[in-house]
Amino acid sequence: MPELPEVETVRRGLERLVIGSPIAAVAVLAPASLRGDPASLIGRRFVRAWRRGKVLGLDLDDGRCLVAHLKMTGQMVFRGPRAAGPRAAGPRAVGPPAGGAEAWGAGHPNDSLIGSLPDNSTRVIVEFAGGARLYFNDQRKFGWLALMPQSQVTAIPLLAKMGPEPLDAGAWPAARERLRRRRRSPIKAALLDQSVVAGIGNIYADEALWASRVHPATPVASVTDRKLKELLTAAAAVMELSLSLGGSTDRNYVDAEGRRGAYLDFAKVFRRQGQPCPRCGQPIIKIRVAGRGTHLCPRCQRWRPNGIGGKGDKGGRRDKSARLETPPRR
DNA sequence: CACTTGACCTGTCCGC
DNA sequence: TGCGGACAGGTCAAGT
């Protein structure tokens, strides 16, 4: 599911690939997936690719914008005219983070998940002069594209009330204020609320909560400012790391060139129920918080009623597995 | 308002 | 092999 690092990865790809080329044709295979008149795109060019939270925007040279939300299964995949075929984009030189992994496992993480296009999830195709194409694919049809004047973009309700960008240096004061409004909310629900902080989804919420040793169900009011700040810092760090790895491919996320992301190979808790916690060795569990599947270490992330945690478990000497950075083979 | 739950949608997985 | 049902989760609408 595309969250901030995934959408940003797509944005960077689109910026390189689709800016400046005149649009020659548009095919809408699923009318509900695009709001606005597709024919009005013909002859126009994209001039800029931006992102806010999980929302993607492609500004046009006529003052309008093609706004996109990928939701769960949306993809924006570019194919050049003579670069047809699954591996056309070629491998990305993604390396493991510092401390790194020995082995990637064959065929990963540079593999494309995309075969020939269009496929049965293709909803909209934008064709550029010269034959290159941008495919908007969306298996579940939750995602959308919308054509509107740039001046109206900020009026989209989601964007109008969106919280601060967690990767911005100055995000903390605004994030703190918005978090504090949610008193009884489980901290995870607040993190997932885009009007509190932008761009965090289920994967990075779980990862950040683990990193800062906060139980996802802890009411916000029970978390100290110090801990909240630590949590926000952890969320930013985790998303920066993911960005450097091309994002997370849980189901079908791919970047603008069809390549999957490698972050999940380094995830500490997400989709790792039953595996040992990298810090303490206790098996990771999966529970339900705020209606979402939630992964945590029951030992590291105890619920501390006063929000003031001891500094982890002081007693336990670090298990050797704490250094385990090797991605499992999936 | 704060907070929770269900709906939207479809591919995948599991048990029978 | 096929089938029913649970499940996945970002956002919105409607509920308490």
Fold topology:
Layout: H1 4-17, E1 23-28, E2 34-35, E3 46-52, E4 55-60, E5 64-69, E6 74-79, E7 122-128, E8 133-138, E9 144-149, H2 150-153, H3 157-160, H4 171-181, H5 187-192, H6 202-211, H7 225-244, E10 285-289, E11 292-296
Parallel strand pairs: 2-9
Antiparallel strand pairs: 1-7, 3-4, 4-5, 5-9, 6-8, 7-8, 10-11
The chain binds a DNA duplex (16 and 16 nucleotides) through residues 1-3, 54, 69-73, 121, 138-143, 157-158, 181-185, 189, 192, 194, 201-202, 250-252, 290-293.
Could you please describe the fold and organization of this structure?
It is built from 7 helices and 11 strands. The protein has helices at 4-17, 150-153, 157-160, 171-181, 187-192, 202-211, 225-244, and strands at residues 23-28, 34-35, 46-52, 55-60, 64-69, 74-79, 122-128, 133-138, 144-149, 285-289, 292-296. A 5-stranded mixed beta sheet has the order 2-9-5-4-3. 21% of the residues lie in helices and 19% in strands. Helix 1 (4-17) runs parallel beside helix 7. The chain has 330 residues and is an alpha+beta fold. Strand 3 (46-52) and strand 4 (55-60) form a beta hairpin. The protein folds into 2 domains: 4-160, MutM-like, N-terminal (N-terminal domain of MutM-like DNA repair proteins, Alpha-Beta Barrel); 171-323, Helicase, Ruva Protein, domain 3, CATH 1.10.8. The structure holds a DNA duplex (16 and 16 nucleotides).
